[in-house]
Amino acid sequence: MLKVDKIDVYYGDVQALWEVSFEMWEKGITVIAGSNGAGKSTTLKTVAGLLQPRTGVIEFLGQRIDRLPPHHIVGKGISLVPEGRMLFSKLTVLDNLRLGNYLPEVRTTRIENLERVFRLFPVLKERKDQIAGTLSGGEQQMLAIGRGLMSRPRLLMLDEPSLGLAPKLISEMFSLLLRISEEGVSILLVEQNVKKALELADKAYVIENGRITLEGSGTELLQDDKVRKAYLGM
Fold first, then answer.
1. Average pLDDT score, the chain
2. What does the domain layout of the chain look like in residue ranges?
């Protein structure tokens, strides 16, 4: 479904990614794990078109996308839920969701998309007229994910969705991601809660200092001594 082949990415003259390569198949959950500053968010931003690789190729469903602008990439079926949620805090829940449904390709299915989001997140339906900035942290994360789903993505990318959430809400959020995956949306997940992420992962990669250093199934990496020592405290 997604093939990232030897991409080098820079911020100005500072290199952030070195020949990063990974693949993910349609359906299921793929995890990119790593410490702060390892290059996880940069990888997602590059796939989303917010950054362009200086070298390398990114393909989605057999088509090259690494030179496309972000809105064209969304139109092809990739949606990014960014770190920090990036909601329009002074707009209502409903207005935030509508802004995820702005492309002509999906605008005609807005009602259907809203019904799907409200089915996944009933609390958003209850609070649809509430100002987004007044929601709890967990509700704001639900809204960010819901907005990402409004474009009917085939691939949903999430950057640190558990950040700032209470432990109980983290468990609920991971359960929701599993449900979204079971409904046929492929998920590419960047997450510092490595244990919970790997427990969900069909495929997983570890990135360190801008380079992919390990790959395997979620189960395999949970049992890897290096991963257990570096990320699981074992």
1. 90
2. 1-77+154-234, 85-152
Nearest Cα residue to 59 out of 69, 50, 67 = 67
Instruction: Extract the tokens encoding 209.
Output: 């200092």
pTM: 0.90
Q: Specify the CATH superfamily of domain 1-77+154-234.
A: P-loop containing nucleotide triphosphate hydrolases (3.40.50.300)
Contact 94, 111 (CB under 8 A): no
Tens digit of each residue's pLDDT (9 = 90 or more) over 2-42: 999 999 999 999 999 999 999 998 889 999 998 888 899 99
| Cα–Cα dist 179/26, whole Å | 15
Apex CA 23: angle with CA 207 and CA 120, to 5°? 90
Helix (H, G, I), strand (E, B) or coil at 2: strand
Q: What contacts 101, CB < 8 A, 6 or more positions away?
A: 107, 110, 113, 114, 150, 151
Provide the Cα torsion 11, 14, 19, 24; round to 10°: -30
